[in-house]
Amino acid sequence: MRAPARLPRWAEFGLLPLMNLCAALLISGAIIRLIGESPWEALKLMVTGAFGAQDSIGYTLFYATDFVFTGLAVAVAFHAGLFNIGGEGQAYIGGLGAGLVGLAFGSWSPWLVVPLGIAAACLFGAAWAFVPAWLQARRGSHIVITTIMSNFIASALMTYLLVNVLIKPGQQSPETREFGRGAVMPAVDVVLGKMGISFAPSPFNLASLLALAACLAVWVFIWRTRWGYALRVVGQNPRAAVYAGISPERTIIVAMLISGGLAGCLGVNELMGSQHRILLDFPGGAGFVGIAVALMGRNHPLGILAAALLFGALYQGGSELSFDMPHVNRDMVVLIQGLVILFCGALENVFRVPLASLLGAARRAPPA
Amino acid sequence: MEPTSAAPQAPGGTEPALELRGIDKRFGTVHANRSVSLSVGRGSIHGLIGENGAGKSTLMNIVCGFHGADSGEILVNGRPVEMGRPRDSIEAGIGMVHQHFMLVERFTVLENVILGAEGGRRLGEGFAAARASLERMGREYGLEVPLDEETGRLPVGMQQRVEILKALHHGAEILILDEPTAVLTPAEADQLFRMLVLLRDQGKTVILVTHKLREIMAVTDRVTVMRQGAVVHETATRDTSPRDLAEQMVGRAVLLRVEKKPAQPGRVLLEVKNLEVRDRLGVSRVKGATFSLRAGEIVGIAGVSGNGQSELLEAVAGIRAPSGGEILLEGRDIAGADPRGLGIAHVPEDRLRMGVVAPFSAEDNEILGYHARRPFSRHGFLIRGEIRRDCARKIADYDIRPPSPWLRITLFSGGNQQKLVMAREIDSKPLVLVVGQPTRGVDIGAIEFIHRRIIELRDSGKAILLVSVELDEIMGLSDRILVMAGGEIVGEVSGSEATEKTLGLMMAGVKGERKP
Q1: Does residue B10 belong to any structural domain of this protein?
Q2: Number of domains in chain B
Q3: What count of other Cβ atoms lies within 10 Å of the Cβ of residue A135?
Q4: What CATH number is attached to the domain comprising B457?
Q5: Which 99-118 residues of chain B touch chain A by CB within 8 A?
Q6: Above pLDDT 90, what percent of chain B?
Q7: Counting beta carbons within 10 angstroms of the beta carbon of residue A113, is it exposed (0 to 12), middle (13 to 18) or buried (19 or more)?
Q8: Cβ of B368 under 8 Å from any chain A Cβ?
Q9: Would the CB atoms of B357 and A237 count as touching at under 8 Å?
Q10: How many Cβ atoms are within 10 Å of A172's Cβ, its own excluded?
Q11: pLDDT in tens, B33-52
């Protein structure tokens, strides 16, 4: 029974994720070479695609905002010992909340409608997470099973609503009419424009500020409040929680409500910030990417911020890559993203043990 | 598995079975082993004794390959063994029986024993061979166990036999037992010692790691004392005494008996009336327990492990709901209330599973259960500075080492962890302290300290309910002793009149006298 090798902080949070990333890119490079393209060119295209121009930076940050929300959602649940893989569905339903506010009150002042939309997104996401949470807490139904099933239910429900109920009359594609102007989360380029700074238009919008605030709030909550403390106790040792007078059932429900609320905020970024209508499958897998983001970011808001940026860049750079390289199509980009998730998430211990013994050896090497 | 009997033997077999030369190991800033050299003769029982944190477990973990050492070497039968590889150690004939069993509870005994030595691709052959050899070993060493029983259903003492059999089946010639009696009743412990003597007489080498002097004196041939990572003393057991060993362990003279003034019981603080407790399966564990607890007294509950003491303790501590009866604190029913708020503090029996949160720092553990109160939190926010100051103060008051509140709790030794838990509960200024196994896995120096603190708390007019499987501890500390058997309180004796014999009879279910 070997305890997982422990590393110094700089290696744990810096070197190790970097090594995992490099390994993923190395294998991606080999695959790109195999299909007859230059890996070096591909890397250059991806980097310039993600950071090369104002609008590409805007897109990168827009995607990163999605991933911050879903990453935080996974992390909060994880601290309570829960593996919430229902971020996708919670985000989908959260978007429904934001969207309904946008459709109903779009003509009101944005100062009222935007906060209302955020609240609705959180509330709907939390409500969707409440069902698996309740089942876990009271019935012992495993959260992994129930959250993944609730993803399918969310998807089916949204398809039904968009096809039969919310669809804009007189059109074929299953999406709603546009929200009123009051429900638009201002884009960053518009805001900067008003301040006299020109920035290329992109979907990058003020929901990213909400994401930053959420990072700070999650950090304060987990490490600086008694509820966060209780949540960590339940996550690490449920029996000690009972001993300490903390109710694991209630804590599980609270953690999942927060988790679902955070995932729901994706709807604010995607719908109120960019699409301005509800459409099919707008989370686009961001709920699942959140798992990788949280894993890579070690469930810490700062790490999640960094990992979300990385995945944002991969998304944006990847789609540019598929435009510019004839042999690299959309699926190839998904493959590269998959490799990054594989190495940074699932295989994160591959380099840990050798690295730990290497660092241990280095520390012993100078003769005492 | 390679047979190890082919090892070259020096004439007369005087070559040590196991030799450690200059083993040195650091974990960060902690120097766990300081150039330890140790030689264990073949066919002997060698005791390794020392306080918790003295480096015994680290040393043994190095011997069985769980850790590599920073320097030094290990020789088995004169041949060097590669360190840091469990498989090499097993092949060299080293077998370890851990304090916490490494058994798959849902497997049968046979399945557990062949785990890791399945012997080929088809299980059937391995099973047949293993069954034959286990039956033979069972006869030779007095280690009979029901091979087809589900392991989790066996009593703890039996499970330990399975661990020993497993090590032997994997070819162990050198058997290391880490605190083997921590989970055993006195009778089971005696049985274990008889088995160890048999094993020795058959030529096996046994290393017994413990902090209990009685065991060292009872069964070992030689004994090595460790203190602060180094070997400080080695001698033949017949040439030493418990007092001598205790002093070597602690580095100063120690009291083996608890010194206390007669109790001065005051008003009744806690009353338990007809308490009934059922477990999750609905089995009745506590049957109509009635007793009271006065200010300024220690009431001990004696009994063979599993006779309802744990359930009684947890019910009084308010974390297990009774199925009947009442628990009154100063006349008020505690049902449904927050016990800590009422003034009931609780040191749980199982420290690691319940008393602490392993990945947390010492200071985060020091607020467990009190995290929602001032001065640790205000308006829901934790006051970090206050938490650290408070923990540093407790660390100083209770002489906890290392004095680092930010350090992870599992990096403290068992004794220091327990002191942290005691500090947390006693400092909450309770009316009643409910304490289970206060010194389980705790070294002598810390035992003395913890006992003193419990008596101080009594002398300040608080009531203490004590559950322990160590009869010496119950008799040494308690002013009154209740004996439990089969979930009932079968007898009561005053602490000064109790003897091991009278308690033992009652524990076995022979009814004693009980004043109403």
Answers
A1: no
A2: 4
A3: 17
A4: 3.40.50.300
A5: 102
A6: 40
A7: buried
A8: yes
A9: yes
A10: 6
A11: 999 999 999 999 999 998 76
